[in-house]
């Protein structure tokens, strides 16, 4: 059984790296992908305004110790991920790379991806993942909290992402990775308030497009407008 699990993770890793490389070459493409059932497709975005009242310490891909508190004073888009998740590879290679292209020159902009599988995503995995995407560690974090239960509690209870579910079916793991998790993008303002969540991956899915073919573009434009508003806010003062 252990050998089968190793093979499954190897296959998923190969697929994930392949997807990342594909999106490095075709940065403007937004392909279809099969996702878990869409939970918040249909609204312009999910209104989730609330303050982040608890810090969380992590290690990012360059080995630097960082925390949520380090994001104070920055405008941050924060997501969940894990290194062999094929759906993360699609999202990170398209939507997140586009955000870096648009806002990466602004010293106040940050992208943060927190692993939902921190006991598997060690420093070596995080570094390799970031390198494939060309992520500058100080600008685009791939980070691990080091302990699974504490990480899941923080993501679910403090940042209010949907509950993370561990898959059990080997075929499901092979196709989708170990965890089913929220693919939404949180936008965090300079005072560490979550100002909204944008479910771009759900809107891009086959189910999302069948419900509303224009939702994805509307959501993306709305997110970009909110990022620009937050980045411009302090400059206007």
From TrEMBL:
Residues spanning the membrane: 7-27
Extract the InterPro entries matched here: SCO1/SenC (IPR003782), Thioredoxin-like_sf (IPR036249), Thioredoxin_domain (IPR013766)
Q: Which GO terms describe its molecular function?
A: metal ion binding
Q: Where is the Thioredoxin domain?
A: 24-224
Sorted alphabetically, the keyword list is: Copper, Membrane, Metal-binding, Transmembrane, Transmembrane helix
Instruction: Say which domain of life the source belongs to.
Output: Bacteria
Record: residues binding Cu cation? 85, 181
Q: In this entry, which stretches build a coiled coil?
A: none
Q: Which CDD domains match?
A: SCO
Family note: Belongs to the SCO1/2 family.
Identification of the protein by name: Cytochrome oxidase Cu insertion factor (SCO1/SenC/PrrC family)
